[in-house]
Amino acid sequence: MSKVYKEDEISVRVDRCLYDSAIKFGGGLTVGVVASLLFFKRRKWPMIMGSGFGLGLAYENCEKDLKEYFTST
C-alpha cells in the first residue's frame, strides 16, 4: 500500500473533484439529451439544466471534501 504524504493529499482530493465533476457533468448532459429528444421537442434547455445540476452536485461534494481536509489540518 502506497503512503500518501500530507502535502500530496490536497492534490489527490482536487484530482478526485475534477474526475467527479467530469462524470457528473457528462451524466447530467446525457440525461438532458435524452429528455430533450424524448419529451421536449429537441430544445436546448434540458441539456443545459442537466449539466448544471451535475456540476452543482459535483461542486457540493468537492466543497465538502475540501472543507473536511482544511478543518482536519
TrEMBL record:
InterPro entries: Mic10 (IPR007512). Keywords: Membrane, Mitochondrion, Mitochondrion inner membrane, Transmembrane, Transmembrane helix. The chain crosses the membrane at residues 22-40. The lineage of its organism: Eukaryota, Metazoa, Ecdysozoa, Arthropoda, Hexapoda. This is MICOS complex subunit MIC10. It comes from Aphis craccivora (Cowpea aphid). Belongs to the MICOS complex subunit Mic10 family. It is found in: Mitochondrion inner membrane. Component of the mitochondrial contact site and cristae organizing system (MICOS) complex. Coiled coil: none annotated. GO terms for cellular component: MICOS complex. It is a single-pass membrane protein. Component of the MICOS complex, a large protein complex of the mitochondrial inner membrane that plays crucial roles in the maintenance of crista junctions, inner membrane architecture, and formation of contact sites to the outer membrane.
